[in-house]
Amino acid sequence: MSLTGALSSAISALNSQSQSLAMISDNISNADTTGYKTTSAMFEDLVTASNSATSYTSGGVNVSGRANISQQGLLAATTNATDVAIQGSGFFVTTNATSGGTTSYTRNGAFTTDNAGYLVNNGNYLEGWRTDAQGNILGNASAASLGPINTQVAATSGSATTKATIAANLPSDAATGATFTSSMTAYDSLGTANSIQITWTKTGANAWTASFGNPTLASNSSTTTGTTSSGTVAITFNSDGSLASTNPSPPTISVTGWTDGAANSSIALNLGTAGKTDGLTQYASGETTPSVDLTGITPDGLPYGKLSSISIGKGGVVDATYSNGQTIAIYKIAVATFSDPNGLSAASDGMYSATAASGNATLQTSGSNGAGTIYGSELESSTTDTSGQFSNMISAQQAYSAASQVITTVDKMFDTLISAVSR
């Protein structure tokens, strides 16, 4: 009966518009949710039987939700150094356990460091690849080498001194046999600061030696910390005061037997360029009591430092900064791309899982092979357009009211029909 079909069709409209309103409500509720993707109501007509010019059978309507997962949200700057966002295609890779967990994907980059040093978001661990200090991935950028980012892998830092540049003027008016002392700082491989005394001895006209003593603690010169070998360098100057040569060339000193267990050190010395005045020189001091005029001693190496902060820069490189001022790269964040990202299955907290429709994840580094670029200290905003959602809500309300009017009308027509039949 046509009235029954009309009633069924109107009821399906009420149900569909109710579901549409639920989607709109979700979208509006998540207008400020990081990385949220709006869901659109997709209406489809239902046909129950073929119609003719003289007979019509109503079918009704059905609705399904379509998540616009691939839609890009605006990136907004934040003050949190571990917030990240992707401009372009792709998702962050996360796991719900540090070992053997379930993999999920997200655009919500609001990560923080937990008490164990992991970067987490609502209990999900951000994954990436270990790098060297320059940000180069160690090994291959593959799923096998991917793991939860643990900033405690580099809780301390320190690097040995491997070279030192010395610039000084040795007084030409000093007497042969005169000696002068200076000192240089040298860090061992454990980041301990040590002091090495340099003894400058004039051995003749335009000739000097530099002898390097055993290292002592920088904080306590009475404590010897190692043994210096190859510690004497012969130095000659030209008649114009510029450096002529050194023996050995280039000069290198070695330190063995560090008392704190550090690795043996080899320190290359840069005393200047022959024929130039960019390092050691020999000019008259013009003083009654000549002295060495030390312009500067610049060693490399760094003292021991504790991890003070973690930050993420453009390209998804995770940097560790230490109390000694050193900043090194420790991880690179992975970006997962899919052939059909809209086919992903959504879960709470902005997490998604792969499905047959989405295809398997392909892991990329930031900005490579079609993957989006990672930006640090930024978050992706919700894609909800509240003005558009209010417009959709009004449409849903009108459609719902209209369908309810159809039911009221059908009810009255049924009453009329029953009255006519009962007469």
3D structure, described in words:
By secondary structure, the chain is an alpha+beta fold. 15% of the residues lie in helices and 39% in strands. The protein has 2 helices and 33 strands. It has helices spanning 2-29, 386-422, and strands at 39-45, 61-67, 75-77, 84-87, 91-95, 103-106, 112-113, 119-121, 124-130, 147-148, 156-159, 163-169, 179-187, 193-204, 207-212, 216-217, 220-224, 227-229, 232-237, 243-247, 252-256, 265-270, 280-281, 293-299, 302-312, 317-322, 327-333, 335-337, 345-346, 351-353, 362-364, 373-376, 378-380. The strands form 6 sheets. Strands 5, 6, 7, 8, 9, 10, 11, 25, 26, 27, 28, 29, 30 and 31 form a 14-stranded antiparallel sheet that branches. Strands 13, 14, 15, 16, 17, 19 and 20 form a 7-stranded antiparallel sheet that branches. Strands 12, 18, 21, 22, 23 and 24 form a 6-stranded mixed sheet that branches. A hairpin with a 5-residue loop joins strand 7 and strand 8. Helix 1 (2-29) runs antiparallel to helix 2 (386-422). The longest helix has 37 residues, at 386-422. The protein is rod-shaped. The two termini are 21 Å apart.
End-to-end distance: 21 Å
The secondary-structure class comes to alpha+beta
Fraction of residues in β-strands: 35-45%
- Give the mean pLDDT: 91
Residue runs with pLDDT of under 50 for 5 or more positions? none
Radius of gyration: 38 Å
Oligomer: single chain
The helix tally amounts to 2
Q: Which sheet architecture does the biggest sheet show?
A: 14 strands, antiparallel
**What helical percentage do the residues reach?**
10-25%
The total strand number stands at 33
Described by the principal axes of the CA atoms, the overall outline is rod-shaped
